[in-house]
Amino acid sequence: MKKHNFSAGPCVLPQEVFLKASEAIMDFNESGLSLIEISHRSKDFVEVMEKARSLALELLGLEGKGYSALFLQGGASMQFLMTAYNLLENKAGYLNTGTWSEKAIKEAKMFGDIMEVGSSKDENFNYIPKGYAIPEGLDYLHLTSNNTIFGTQIKKFPKTNVPLVCDMSSDIFSRQLDFTQFDLIYAGAQKNMGPAGTTLVVVKDDILGKVSRKIPSMLDYQVHISKDSMFNTPPVFAVYTSMLTLEWLKDLGGIAAIEEINEKKAQLLYSEIDLNPVFQGFAKKEDRSNMNATFNLADDRLKETFDALWKEAGINGINGHRSVGGYRASMYNALSLESVGVLVDVMSEMERKG
Ligand code: PMP
């Protein structure tokens, strides 16, 4: 039986994507060859890369607006340093909203001055700082739109003339935003887009080429753009599967359609967390994430009972990250409303057992 998979990533993808991807492993486009045994320079694969790149831009509403989409390797973690390598000349601002922001800050410090414009470390990152000042003249401001571990999400992005760089690893393609407000977006594939192994980078072409340092080819966005994201052998399976997920999303009605479903899932789970006295939410209400809901048991002695119940219901992956403890239910695009219903039923049963 297929489990209800609330894993934080890698995570559930649409069932039809799993099917099509596995078919392509056996026989790609009825060619008598596997997707993973053909040349990445073959016409069939070049078309996959082009489709994936154009779908990413189309779904974000960025087609024809001076942006390029790249499918790179090294995970979102590689982007922590690649963004700084390509964009940081003197000083950049970072909003510190958790573990991933801190890792981005650590890497960027190797390339220039880093200023933390705000931080929620004082309360173990259970909120998003607001009202912080953004000095003029920064090379860029780096934000993490969704904090996978702590379950917080930026709802309102700052208005600024400083170029915005955003790590959207855990909420890209999940909600409608004016994506033109960002100059560079990056996201590891393994939440809302595909399997681990590729990272989507969407970059506004005219912010590049401004730093004075020499950039090694593999770390240079302009090199990857000039080679249509094929500077070296791309991760063919991850790109193909990402393309399938983006097609699935487009057929569903795009980001507007999935946002509606994501809202319903989040409302269902958060209203249970708020009303059920057995559970306590971790993140501040106004900042909580529609992708990752973090919560704790009000009484830890109930842990054994709760864990047994959700496992019995076919639920997977709701143990919280070690730095927060408790539970984290990740509700990425491909997780069904029905799966959230199953979790909510288990939580109400806990209340009845009380
Ligand atoms: N940023 C965020 C917001 C993440 O959630 C993660 C991974 N969970 C990363 C960065 C790191 O991604 P990767 O493992 O692909 O390097």
Automatic annotation (TrEMBL):
Signal sequence interval, chain numbering: none
Annotated ranges, domain Aminotransferase class V: 5-340
Chain positions recorded as L-glutamate binding sites: R41
Keywords carried by this UniProt record: Amino-acid biosynthesis, Aminotransferase, Cytoplasm, Pyridoxal phosphate, Pyridoxine biosynthesis, Serine biosynthesis, Transferase
Pathway noted in the entry: Amino-acid biosynthesis; L-serine biosynthesis; L-serine from 3-phospho-D-glycerate: step 2/3; Cofactor biosynthesis; pyridoxine 5'-phosphate biosynthesis; pyridoxine 5'-phosphate from D-erythrose 4-phosphate: step 3/5
Enzyme Commission code(s) on record: 2.6.1.52
Pfam family, one: Aminotran_5
InterPro entries the UniProt entry points to: Aminotrans_V_dom (IPR000192), Aminotrans_V_PyrdxlP_BS (IPR020578), Pser_aminoTfrase (IPR022278), PyrdxlP-dep_Trfase (IPR015424), PyrdxlP-dep_Trfase_major (IPR015421), PyrdxlP-dep_Trfase_small (IPR015422)
Enzyme class, spelled out: transferase
One term under GO cellular component: cytoplasm
Chain positions found as N6-(pyridoxal phosphate)lysine: K191
Cofactors: pyridoxal 5'-phosphate
One BP term from GO: pyridoxine biosynthetic process
Cofactor-binding details, from the entry: Binds 1 pyridoxal phosphate per subunit.
Residues given in the record as pyridoxal 5'-phosphate binding sites: A76, S77, W100, T148, D167, Q190, N232, T233
Major place of residence: cytoplasm
Catalytic activity: 4-(phosphooxy)-L-threonine + 2-oxoglutarate = (R)-3-hydroxy-2-oxo-4-phosphooxybutanoate + L-glutamate; O-phospho-L-serine + 2-oxoglutarate = 3-phosphooxypyruvate + L-glutamate
Recorded family membership: Belongs to the class-V pyridoxal-phosphate-dependent aminotransferase family. SerC subfamily.
Subunit structure: Homodimer.
Purpose of the protein: Catalyzes the reversible conversion of 3-phosphohydroxypyruvate to phosphoserine and of 3-hydroxy-2-oxo-4-phosphonooxybutanoate to phosphohydroxythreonine.
Protein name in UniProt: Phosphoserine aminotransferase
Organism, as annotated: Zobellia galactanivorans (strain DSM 12802 / CCUG 47099 / CIP 106680 / NCIMB 13871 / Dsij)
Lineage: Bacteria, Pseudomonadati, Bacteroidota, Flavobacteriia, Flavobacteriales
